[in-house]
Amino acid sequence: SQPVRLADYRPPEWLVDTVELDVCLHPTATSVRSKLTLRPNPEGQAGAPLVLDGDELAFVSFTLDGAPLDPSGYAVSPTALTIKNLPARPLVLEIETLLNPSANTKLMGLYRSGKSYCTQCEAEGFRRITYFPDRPDVLSIYTTRIEADVMEAPVLLGNGNPVESGPVAGTSRHYAVWHDPWPKPCYLFALVGGALDRIVEPFTTASGRTVELGIYVEPGKTDRASYAMDALKRSMRWDEETFGCEYDLDVFNIVAVADFNMGAMENKGLNIFNDKYILATPETATDVDYARIEGIIAHEYFHNWTGNRITCRDWFQLCLKEGLTVFRDQEFSSDERSRPVKRIDDVRVLKSHQFAEDSGPLAHSVRPDTYREINNFYTATVYEKGAEIIRMLKTLLGSQGFRAGMDLYFERHDGDAATVEDFLTCFSDATGADLRHFTRWYSQAGTPRVNVETRWDKTARTFALDISQQTLPTPGQPVKQTLTIPLVVGLLGPDGSELPLIRSDATSNERSSGILVLEGERACFTFADLPARPILSINRGFSAPIELRTDLSTEDLLFLARHDSDAFNRFDAAQTLAMGYLVATAAALREGKAPADPNALVAAVDSVLADHSLDAAFVAQALSLPSENDIAREIGHDVDPDAVAAARKGLRQVLGGRLAPALIAAYERLAIPEPYAPDAVSAGRRALKNGALDLLATARAGDGIARTVALYRTADNMTDRLAALTILTHAAPQEREAALEDFYARYHDDPLVVDKWLTLQALIAEPETLDRIRTLTRHPAFSMGNPNRVRSLIGAFAAVNPSQMHRPDGQAHAFVADTILVLDRSNPQLAARILGSFRSWRQLETVRRTSAENTLRRIAQADNLSSDVSDIVMRALG
Ligand code: DPP
Ligand code: ZN
């Protein structure tokens, strides 16, 4: 397929004002009749043919203004319906297509999940339902009639508000009509039909309107939807209070389905969710699951304004809705939970996914300027780095300036298909700020490296920071520009107190600001009137998404880990110490030398553990080391994943052994029976308790294993039981098989819990794991047809078990590649996702790198690759 280029954007030739759909659901022969009112776009090119997109469509018939057209006047294929020589005036086009939803394994367009019918149209799935100008800048008002067998699909849902429903006389069928008054692009279209149960609750909006909120689930699972409902109501209130965004329909429905390629989808008034992000009870979901459900419910709801009321002009602008909406859901979770802990979580995700993507062959800018397959751009860069850009914007403009820009954006662009430029212009217009240099964050790929050197002048009592930035080349971008980098700083005195910031280099209104803005390649910032040499705390709260290098000594980092008032940097100082140790030890192990000296890190973690004023969730984060993938990225080249795994495991044993008394104390203090509640404080206590137990068991200290066995048996919630099972699986091979068997026996009826069981086994860092996975692919609980099962077993293995995925014999590479090629025939999006796990292959040592490269070449040479897989494999090799 030819690449699509941002520079080639042209307005649509034809607009579609209204769409009337009539969908008669049938397992293998669903008919779709579509009536479009079209008119020439005044901004389009006059006299252009009308080209409607299709994808694997079976054309039945069409009429123009009620009459059939001579076959010489149009061309139709499964991928397009083209009509030439149309008069430049409003027209009515009626088209009928025929679909087989049961055969739709791509899970794009209309498909079946279990016995239900559902749709997924983002990005380009609507063209798999009917011929249509499938692009986000064509906005239409939709009326949808859905008809189905009343037994098969007693529930019929569409976008917007329900209009009417009833039986189809003389048949076993019934129908429902839905009308959505808000013009929308077709990627936000959805319908659902099935035998579903629901919970329903009213919500009163800020202006006093009542909205009926419904969550639909498989029969018998309504008791698992109450947390999602609670999160939805809190999200709706938060968006009113924080951004003045009120909901705009009479109903808001969410449907949970078991087969879904993504997490969830923000279809107007009818969100469709992967059921793993709806269903939760204390017995089946962990604290992490609850937090994700809350975050994704909020994310999809927030799209109603950032995505739906204001949508994207074209798919290059995907970050306009995604980065902004991720930022909004992060802020919501920060307000609902603990802001510093949420920030630590988000930065961990950013580094492990986005930084990894940005430093390898799949690096791309937040707003790419070309793509071959848009499905491959739902990435950590577009989402998470996109959110970081919004966060920096807020840091630079301040809360009030940021809110003023958002208000103007909603006011000016409501109803538009907008661009990143439109968005940024609102902020410069609202605040007077010049954002031209800042805009580079959207177009330049790669993580900037920022270097900080400090100079303390005892006589002058000044402290100077020499700061420089550099971004390494990425594919297609050999030469990099400088970026606007906002660095939040603090200076700590010898007793750990915050020193006043007096900038001697700055203009009067910047003099006491704790935000240093680097725009050029290098700059010097000087602080004056200091009583003693300060310790620098910089990039507080991770104010810029950068790789930071400083000249802070081990003692300085230990000091920050003990005293920094910025909780993120306190955590980060300990992580930096850990990373330094892990990188040095991985190198030493490869050369057969002794591990590095862990004393500073042990002291840092010890002081965090001893500080009972800290949030338990924060302490749990401090106990948790950088992942093997994070360490590999830090090493950057010639990586031996076995050495990395050994270094990390060794450090966990050191921490568990040396800190045993404090860990035992923490465990015992927190292991008091209390009824389960998923709130952040209780979750934090469990995270610390189980984190302490994990280190003890790993070190075989403090009766860690016996305590874990007991926890597994007595746990009354999934968080504790899964934590115990995880520890036993990794740290107690002799307990492993019995525990895994017991877990499966307890939960085999619950696919979402079985997923946890699959993932746990996929992540065992032992050579037997590959065979175990092969065996599990034949297990009755596994299915290649269900994306959650595939991601839980094979996706998890490929992405987060680096020592086994990159076995030097190449067998795991071969297995994963074979799986990808099989999957590509049924579900290319899922296949391409898993292939993305090869993204860091170039950093491996020679033997493993050669195996990865050969494997990628074999995939590239396979016949009939989807555009999804061929795009990733070409770029990965590129
Ligand atoms: N737009 C969805 C989301 O990120 C993904 N398709 O919410
Ligand atoms: Zn989204």
Automatic annotation (TrEMBL):
Domain Peptidase M1 alanyl aminopeptidase Ig-like fold: start-end pairs: 446-550
Domain annotation Peptidase M1 membrane alanine aminopeptidase: ranges: 227-440
Domain Peptidase M1 alanyl aminopeptidase C-terminal: start-end pairs: 555-877
Xref: InterPro entries: Aminopeptidase_N-like_N, Aminopeptidase_N-like_N_sf, PepN_Ig-like_sf, Peptidase_M1, Peptidase_M1_dom, Peptidase_M1_pepN, Peptidase_M1_pepN_C, Peptidase_M1_pepN_C_sf
Enzyme class: hydrolase
Catalytic function, reaction form: Release of an N-terminal amino acid, Xaa-|-Yaa- from a peptide, amide or arylamide. Xaa is preferably Ala, but may be most amino acids including Pro (slow action). When a terminal hydrophobic residue is followed by a prolyl residue, the two may be released as an intact Xaa-Pro dipeptide
Pfam families (alphabetical): DUF3458, DUF3458_C, Peptidase_M1, Peptidase_M1_N
Enzyme Commission designation: 3.4.11.2
Secretion signal span: none
Entry superkingdom: Bacteria
GO molecular function annotations of the record: alanyl aminopeptidase activity
Keywords for the protein's UniProt record, in alphabetical order: Aminopeptidase, Hydrolase, Metal-binding, Metalloprotease, Protease, Zinc
Cofactor: Zn(2+)
Gene3D superfamilies given in the database record: 2.60.40.1840, 3.30.2010.30, Neutral Protease Domain 2, Peptidase M1, alanyl aminopeptidase, C-terminal domain, tricorn interacting facor f3 domain
Segments forming domain Aminopeptidase N-like N-terminal: 34-188
Family note: Belongs to the peptidase M1 family.
Matches recorded under PANTHER family: PUROMYCIN-SENSITIVE AMINOPEPTIDASE (PTHR46322)
NCBIfam families, per the entry: pepN_proteo
Protein name in the entry: Aminopeptidase N
Native source species: Ancylobacter crimeensis
